[in-house]
Amino acid sequence: MCGVNQKRRGAFLQIMWTAAIMLCIVIALFSVIYASAVKGRTRVEETAVGTSLPPGGNTSPGTDQSYDGAAQTDPTRSTEIPDYDAVTLGETEDMGLTYLDNFVFLGDSTIGGLKDYNIVGERQVWIPQDRQFALFNEGIISVMDPVSGENLSIDEIFTRYRPEYVLISVGADGTGYMDRERFIRDYTNLVRRIQVSSPETKIILDSIYPCTRGYADSHMSGNGGVSMMIKISMGNDWIRQVALDTGTVYLDSVASLKNEDGYLPDSFTAGDGMHLNAEALNEVISYLRTHAYQQGNAQDGGTPPVDVP
């Protein structure tokens, strides 16, 4: 009887030892898997911090250094570098006044200077009565019909006149507080409205104009104190993305306005560091005439226009 009890005790101890060994193996495997997961996550986070934005809108004025902090505040951007050259208008011969006369200019107070300084015809400038064109209001915003004086929606004015060309100059009011996803979505909706209302109109998306160094330094945004000029550069990349997505084209008129440091010269401002004077706006018009819309500029790969609410 004693021998039977000893055998049972030995079997029990063997089972306990086996269970203990198996538990140790499980704990060791769990530790290895957890350590690998933490290490992988750390590498992903380090990559995100060190990844710069696509070329063009990610550099501090006057430098070649990428603004790496944007990667943390812009998680919706694609890791694939877009082909912005495909939608950017290149240099052409001067198309002259005949080409210019076929344009309407849609925008805010900045583009309103074209009318104030008599640079183009008064009927060619379509702006809201208060000259504020906030992209987040694109669905309800109205512009003043320069012929009748009525306030018309985007759909109504383009359905009424169906211009041959439109240069859209908006975005400066949005870059300070809109993220990439919202900016692109609302700008795309604006373009879609025009494409539905006036399918034959050739749409050119203008760059956001630069500001002076003094204005940039006094208008910071974000946790890191991002300069307004960096935000403008980022916004111009977002506009290029809209052009890619909608089959339209981009006019890099900012190139005609920047000084060697990447800012708007003080001699080009109307006095506030942001709005353009007559000399600067004439530079924009000259750039528009010498970077003309050519047959075949529109992309075949853009998403077809669809009705928007």
Short summary:
With 309 residues, the chain is of the alpha/beta class. It has helices at 2-50, 70-73, 96-100, 109-116, 154-161, 172-175, 180-197, 213-218, 228-246, 278-289; strands at 103-107, 125-126, 142-144, 151-153, 165-169, 202-206, 220-221, 226-227, 249-251.
- Which ranges are low-confidence, i.e. pLDDT below 50, for 5 or more consecutive residues? 34-77, 300-309
CA gyration radius, whole angstroms: 29 Å
Beta-strand portion reads: 5-15%
The number of helical segments is: 10
Shape: elongated
Which range best describes the helical content: under 10%, 10-25%, 25-40%, 40-55%, 55-70% or over 70%?
A: 40-55%
Largest sheet: 5 strands, parallel
Number of strands: 9
Distance between the termini: 90 Å
CATH topology of the largest domain: Rossmann fold
